[in-house]
Write a structure and sequence with these properties.
Blueprint: H1 21-30, E1 45-46, H2 58-64, H3 75-88, E2 92-96, H4 99-110, E3 116-119, H5 124-132, E4 136-139, H6 156-164, E5 171-177, H7 190-203, E6 206-210, H8 214-224, H9 233-242, E7 246-250, E8 261-265, H10 268-281, H11 292-304, H12 308-327, E9 340-344, H13 345-348, H14 358-370, E10 372-373, E11 375-377, H15 379-382, E12 399-403, H16 411-426, E13 434-438, E14 449-452
Parallel strand pairs: 1-10, 3-4, 3-5, 5-6, 6-7
Antiparallel strand pairs: 2-8, 7-8, 9-12, 11-12, 13-14
């Protein structure tokens, strides 16, 4: 099969906006220079996230029509439960409306003040849930020099040292995120999960998966581990699930649907406590904040997502896109995973220090150049305000993520993004940094208001005229 040939036909289309350059400048300023606050009507290509942005299949749309909307014990829940049990092997299946509800409920029932949650890398909402429970999130990503096949692994030596050290008794759970979203979208190897399982057994620690991209991780295992070559991705996924005590997932990713999540566990008592909390905040345990039609679409999506042809297309498309962005001059993290291409903004913008948010600066410039929206995974997301009022404490890396919605964009859409990136690279030395003007809470990046330049500097972009709202619309380039 040729690279990137979509293993599907397109049956419905949606028009996309083409805001003029003046309109883009105005939209970014009105949004406080925060791309989360820019309305979708002002976006041409939206690569902000792969969460909930996928195109559903004909079978999923058909499944909506048989959704059972009974409040309790609906047939749609029974189908969903059956599919999840077959996939994961976990007896306790709890639907929720999305991933952050799952992690907030599960970690809130599992963790106590003073506990430690250890991960290959906690994502932003996961860390917030850990801290909301009074616990502390500890990241132990495996250290690697240069590109490696499984850059998402958890550091087994570091975990061993922690568990045998003075803080070992405080480790309540280990969370392996597959794939490692905050770590460049890199996969976790099967051998790494086996080694982590052995340490957890030795020290009596619960092992959980953030399985939001379980199918993509399984496919990359079959592609990069010679011992697993040729295995069906679904079989590999089952083996990974079998090594853990349970999982949570945003099914807005590898459920290939627009809403939904789950908690799945072996421990019936922990599941009971989760259901008690779920009733208070999500709904009855057999619908968990979802409509019956959503459960039907999710069950079908969980069957489709492990199709080898689909996963091959997904991985090949991301690889091609990453190579083209690198050709355009962006410092792309290699090898690419499946769900996104990650770019090192600090390498492209060495003149912008971490506290001036180089990842935000690059993301905003891509929007200004072509109405392309991507996400910042640098100091705005993973850094912290200095408690003493100084510069922000920087994130480990200044990454920009080009997330690919499933079954949405074609090669020509991505070529447009590459052209936009080349335009930005050509003027990289002119790109200004940003500062935070307003922020709230640990998830500040969703709502923060920013401004370019140093404190007290102009609100307009340096060297650029204020937008003219009367300017006629033009093509993005």
């Amino acid at each position: 099969m040729p690279a990137f040939m979509e293993p599907f036909r397109i049956k419905a289309v949606e028009p996309i906006p083409f805001p003029s350059r003046a309109q883009r400048r105005r939209a970014l300023q009105d949004a406080g220079f925060n791309l989360f606050r820019v309305p979708a009507a002002a976006i041409t290509i939206d690569l902000l996230t792969d969460s909930g942005t996928s195109a559903m299949s004909a079978a999923q749309w058909a499944a909506l029509m048989v959704g059972d909307e009974s409040y309790a014990g609906a047939r749609s829940y029974q189908r969903f439960e059956q599919v999840v049990r077959e996939l994961t092997g976990y007896a306790e299946v709890i639907p929720v409306h999305q991933g952050r509800a799952a992690e907030r409920i599960l970690l809130g029932r599992l963790l106590r003040p003073g506990d430690l949650s250890v991960s290959n890398t906690h994502f932003d909402t996961t860390r917030a849930s850990v801290e909301a429970a009074g616990a502390r999130a500890v990241d132990l990503p495996a250290e690697a020099v240069g590109p490696v096949a499984f850059g998402g692994d958890l550091s087994v030596p570091a975990l061993r040292d922690l568990l045998t050290g003075p803080d070992g008794g405080s480790v309540r759970c280990v969370v392996v995120t597959v794939t490692n979203n905050a770590g460049g979208g890199q996969p976790v190897s099967l051998g790494n999960v086996v080694a982590v399982r052995e340490l957890c057994d030795r020290h009596g620690v619960t092992l959980l998966l953030d399985a939001s991209r379980f199918a993509e991780n399984a496919y990359l295992i079959t592609e990069r581990d010679p011992a697993q070559a040729g295995r069906p991705p679904r079989d590999v996924a089952r083996e990974v699930f079998a090594l853990a005590d349970g999982c949570w997932a945003s099914l807005k990713k590898d459920g290939i649907a627009n809403i939904g999540g789950l908690i799945a566990l072996r421990d019936a008592d922990l599941a009971r406590r989760c259901r008690d909390q779920l009733i208070a905040v999500e709904g009855f345990p057999t619908y968990g904040g979802l409509a019956g039609r959503d459960l039907e679409a999710l069950a079908q999506g969980l069957l489709e997502v492990t199709d080898p042809d689909y996963l091959r297309y997904r991985a090949q498309t991301t690889r091609w896109f990453g190579d083209r962005l690198a050709d355009a001059g962006l410092p792309v993290l290699q090898p690419t995973g499946c769900h996104a291409v990650y770019v090192d903004a600090a390498a492209l913008l060495p003149h912008v220090p971490p506290h001036r948010l180089p990842a935000t600066a690059l993301a905003n410039e891509l929007y200004l150049a072509g109405a392309v929206r991507v996400s910042e995974l640098g100091t705005l997301v993973f850094g912290r305000p200095d408690p003493d009022g100084g510069d922000d404490l920087p994130a480990p890396r200044e990454l920009v993520r080009f997330a690919l919605p499933r079954r949405v964009y074609t090669k020509s859409h991505l070529e447009y993004v590459v052209e936009t990136a080349a335009e930005v690279v050509a003027k990289a030395t002119e790109i200004p940094g940003y500062r935070v003007v307003e922020q709230t809470g640990p998830l500040r990046h969703f709502t923060a208001v920013l401004a370019p330049g140093e404190p007290g500097g102009p609100a307009a972009l340096p060297g650029r005229p204020a937008p003219d709202p009367t300017s006629p619309p033009r093509a993005p380039h």
